[in-house]
Each structure stands twice: as C-alpha cells, then as structure tokens.
Design brief:
Layout: E1 6-13, E2 33-37, E3 40-46, H1 55-69, E4 75-76, E5 82-83, H2 86-95, H3 97-107, E6 110-119, H4 124-130, H5 132-143, H6 147-177, E7 182-185, E8 194-201, H7 205-218, E9 223-231
Antiparallel strand pairs: 1-3, 1-4, 1-5, 2-3, 6-8, 6-9, 7-8
Length: about 250
Amino acid sequence: MTDHGVYVYGIVRAEHPLPSNLGGVGGPPGIVERRDEGRVAAVVSPAPPDLRARRRDLMAHQELLLALAADGPVLPMRFGMVAPDEATVRRQLSEAEERHLAALESLAGRVEINVKATPADDALAALVAADAGIRGLRDAMRRRPGYEANVRLGEAVATALARRAAEAGHAIVGELRKRARASAAGPEVAGCQVNMSFLVSRDDSAAFCAEAERLARQYRDRVVLRVAGPLPCYSFVEPRTPVSAGR
C-alpha cells in the first residue's frame, strides 16, 4: 500500500461490508479497504508515516471497528498493528483461516463491556461506622495525637478502603457473570480494585449495563463503578495476531 506498511484494523469474514462514511488512521484519514483471502479478510488502510497514539487516530480505529461489528463479527486488532506489506497479511490470513473462522463464529452477535471498580471517594464515613478497628485507631489518635498515630490511622484506612472496594467489586463481578457469555480479567490499573471485561449478547447489552448501574448504586458506599461499552471484543480474541505490531 505504502512504503510505511499496511495498517490492520481487524479480521472479518470475506465479503463483509465496509462502512462508507468512515476513514482510517492518519491525516488526512486513510482509505479503508478489505483484503479477502479465502473465507476471511483483513480490513486495512495505508499506514501513515508518523503513526502515534493521537486521540484522532485512536477514535478512528475504534469507530471503524464498532461500525464493522454492526454488520457482523470482527476480530479486532489493538491500535498500532502494522504489517510490512499486503503479502504478509494475505499469507497469515491463509495460514490461520480456520482458526479465524472459529473465532468469528464465537463472537457473532456479541460485544464487550468493561467494568472497573475503584474505592469510593466518600466511603470513609461508612468505613468508620462499620470497622471497630478503625474507630479504635481514630479514638487513640484523638487522645494522643502525633505523627506515628496519624500514619497508622492513614495506612489502616487506605488498606480497609481498598479491601472493602475489592470485596464489593468481586460481588458485582459475580452478579454480572450470570448475565455474560464469558469474562476476562484486564491488566492491573493503579488504584483500581477490579478491571473485568464481559462478553455479552449485543441484544442484551443495554440490560447488562442497566444491571451494572443498579449494582453501582447498591455498593456506592464502597466503590465507584465505571462501565464502558459496548466495545470491540478485544479481550476475547487470542493474543496471537495475524501481523506484527509496529514496523
């Protein structure tokens, strides 16, 4: 396509329709095309020479994947996946055709929803009311204030808030798993007690998000719940990809 390689958005079934109103990454936006190989295809555009994780390009990548998913299953690539040339894309599509078809079938009609839980900012009052140990440390500091007493109380509060948030987060995950086809833990995020993605039927995604919001209200004295989705099914695609990241 260009001397800078082929940018790959995802893998679809051959003949999967392309959205007519969306461009790809780069400035101006790259022309999005499909490269069929047997019964599967890669959705691609020319790789820009200065590809970086700009908001413009991140949004173009995700919006294209969501538009593709509206017309059938997609195996999404993470942002920044570039092949050296079209021959590499076609060869690796051909070599993994059966595996890609099976994965596409498993994602048909499904979306990803991500849930993160962090300790509630206003959870201290509920913690003090529920935890006799914290109340004891607080009262001891009031009787004999000092640096060490303050540090002990602060450490105990931070530990207890994180524990209560984790307990609430895992309870929420347990309830949401009942409504999902599958779940996958995400990478650790600083300050985040739970980072979990769920594979959900597209038709049930609104009800799933509504249930997550109900659980967020139920546990609001322990956690802040952040629900993102529907998303491309990044967490439910094998880590192996048909091309190499970077150039």
